[in-house]
């Protein structure tokens, strides 16, 4: 379950990063679309456009079409990347959903096991612990009895020795 949880966290982090990249792609698409649309609009102006700074007419330069072509290529490349990213996001979201379902199943199994432990095994464990405690106490009592028996035997033999020697 821990590994599954780690995988879920990793999926969340990756999805978050994908959303960030998607935001950047959308921003790039808007920027590039603005460049292309602006250039197309500029080409369609028939009367000369005046520069707002110096008042001179702005001339449409041929080299600017290369900028439009580059922007169009970059736009189509970014759109393709966005499409790929959306597919990856969709795939990862499905995988995350599958992981969440598996996690829920494992959590349900874990709960069932815990209930079984609480109902059947823990009470038996308590009985076993109680029996072990009683057994240890009995062993201790038997050990003490043996020590007293040994002492009694030594005293008895000492008394017998003294009695045999004639000391009352």
Textual characterization of the structure:
The protein is mainly α and 168 residues long. The chain has a single domain (2-124), classed as Helix Hairpins (Orthogonal Bundle). The chain has 2 helices and 2 strands. Helix 1 packs antiparallel against helix 2. The chain is rod-shaped. The two termini are 81 Å apart.
CATH architecture: Orthogonal Bundle
Helix segment tally: 2
- For this structure, the quaternary state is single chain
By DSSP, the count of extended strands is 2
Main sheet overview: 2 strands, antiparallel
Overall pLDDT metric = 87
Q: Approximately how much beta-strand content do the residues carry?
A: under 5%
Anisotropy-based shape = rod-shaped
N- to C-terminal distance: 81 Å
Key traits:
168 residues; mainly alpha; Helix Hairpins; two-stranded antiparallel ribbon; rod-shaped
Summary of the model, kept short:
Residues 68-116 form a coiled coil. With 168 residues, the chain is mainly alpha-helical. It is 85% helix and 2% strand.
Structural topology:
Elements: H1 2-43, E1 49-50, E2 57-58, H2 64-164
Antiparallel strand pairs: 1-2
């Amino acid at each position: 379950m821990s590994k599954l949880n780690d995988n879920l966290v990793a999926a969340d982090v990756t999805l978050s990063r994908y959303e960030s990249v998607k935001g950047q792609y959308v921003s790039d698409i808007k920027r590039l679309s603005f460049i292309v649309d602006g250039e197309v609009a500029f080409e369609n102006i028939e009367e000369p456009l005046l520069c707002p700074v110096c008042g001179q007419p702005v001339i449409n330069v041929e080299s600017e079409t290369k900028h439009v072509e580059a922007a169009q290529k970059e736009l189509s490349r970014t759109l393709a990347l966005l499409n790929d990213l959306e597919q990856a996001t969709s795939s990862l979201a499905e995988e995350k959903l599958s992981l969440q379902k598996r996690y829920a199943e494992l959590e349900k199994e874990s709960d069932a096991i815990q209930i079984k432990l609480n109902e059947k095994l823990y009470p038996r464990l308590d009985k076993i612990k109680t029996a072990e405690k009683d057994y240890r106490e009995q062993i201790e009592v038997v050990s003490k009895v043996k020590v007293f028996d040994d002492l009694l035997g030594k005293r008895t033999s000492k008394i017998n020795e003294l009695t045999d020697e004639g000391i009352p």
